[in-house]
# Entry
Amino acid sequence: MPRSADAIVIGAGIIGCAISFELAKRGRRVVCVEKLPAAGYGPTGASSAIVRTHYSTEVGVAMAYEGYAYWRDWQDYIGTRDENGFARFVDSGAIIIDNPDYDLEKAVGLFDRAGIDYERWDLDALTARLPIFDRGAFWPPKRPDEDAFWDESEKDIAGALFMPQSGFVPDPQLATHNLMRAAENRGAEFLFRREVTEIFQSGGRVKGVKLGDGERIEGPVVVNAAGTYSSALNRMAGVDEGMAVKTRSLRVEVHCVSAPEGFDFEEHGCYVFDGDTGVYFRPEVGNTILVGSEDPECDPRQWIDDPADYDREITEAQWRAQVFRLAKRIPSLPIPARPSGLVSLYDVSDDWIPIYDKSDLPGFYMAIGTSGNQFKNAGVAGNLMAELIEACEGGQDHDREPVCVSGRYTGCRLDAGFFSRRRELHHESSFSVNG
Ligand SMILES: Cc1cc2nc3c(=O)[nH]c(=O)nc-3n(C[C@H](O)[C@H](O)[C@H](O)COP(=O)(O)OP(=O)(O)OC[C@H]3O[C@@H](n4cnc5c(N)ncnc54)[C@H](O)[C@@H]3O)c2cc1C
# Structure
């Protein structure tokens, strides 16, 4: 007898684990298949795991605010013991540095509509919290190999916006493990070091998957939560032709440096979105700082054809670009002799907004194109996908009559049609990692 399930989830990153948990809660027998040795070992484990609410669309902001509430309530939401402990959420707040590329008034309008708190900070307020910050304006972002990079700033930044309802999760892999244990507690089964190599169908419906070792798992529902392999899985299912929005992999680097001596950035720091210099950064354990690129125009985008085959070594050029830009904002930053950090991939959709949807093959669903910004939304996405799957399996035509989901915590109304594979691109998107 082949193994069977009510739902097969492909991928045990944070999104696949959250969907597995939410489907299991609704009484489905879930099998989650992961080719790596453990949950969250792919790009999820490399995530900066910043939980912030500033997105460029109203839906994006509402979803992120709902996502923040999951992290505040994490232990109760998980609802079961994990022998490794619970992932910690550091409620540090977030700062946006004012710059000409960022429309602060639009952000404030979106926060007002969602009921999100914020404070407008002048430079005294900013440097009272972070006295290690330089007040200079350096916009537009540049790379150290440009002469202009080394110019002194001629004026100050205008100020900043502080959002207290933001933070980060220091251990994204542990958070994913928590979700896996929560799903198992509801009866889900996880298969590791097993790869889905075929998706089989009959009578115009998905019927299950075949694994690399030849085993077949039968089930009426299959969910593509394969992260950077999302487009390969869609091709395997034969559903890519029906997609107006596609996904592809982008290579990214995140670096780690010590905080300036004598300043406890771990205690007093927070997530900072510094579009003026073109980096984001946040505190990391051991009084270090994680720094990534905010995707400014001067940073070339490295699209990857095969997510199994890309350069996993930090490059000197990108390390200098990110760390030296951080040193513009924090001039006392000690520049390490040797680069350290990580290299990973984003699964990017054409408009940098995820695809949470059904497909043209009945029973085959997708939660993909997370575009470097959906770790924070895993709980919301799990709930949204489970509601969408139950509605479609119950006969609702989601393409004509989109499923709407109420946020469990904030009560926000999320129209899942916003995330449709058939949408016209959302032109209000930032078309960057900011979503
Ligand atoms: C460097 C970096 C920094 C980031 N920072 C942030 C941040 O600060 N805040 C934020 O909200 N988001 C952030 N993100 C984005 C966030 O981490 C992702 O959106 C999220 O982790 C995606 O989760 P996922 O489960 O979709 O994908 P993944 O983690 O990629 O998981 C997919 C899994 O599917 C498995 N798989 C693929 N194909 C198969 C197959 N055929 N058979 C079996 N298994 C398969 C893979 O092995 C993988 O483990 C960041 C991402 C990166 C890379």
User: Anything to note?
Assistant: The chain has a mean pLDDT of 97. The domain at 3-85+171-246+351-419 is CATH 3.50.50.60 (FAD/NAD(P)-binding domain). The chain has two domains: 3-85+171-246+351-419, 94-164+250-346. DSSP finds eleven helices and 23 strands in the chain.
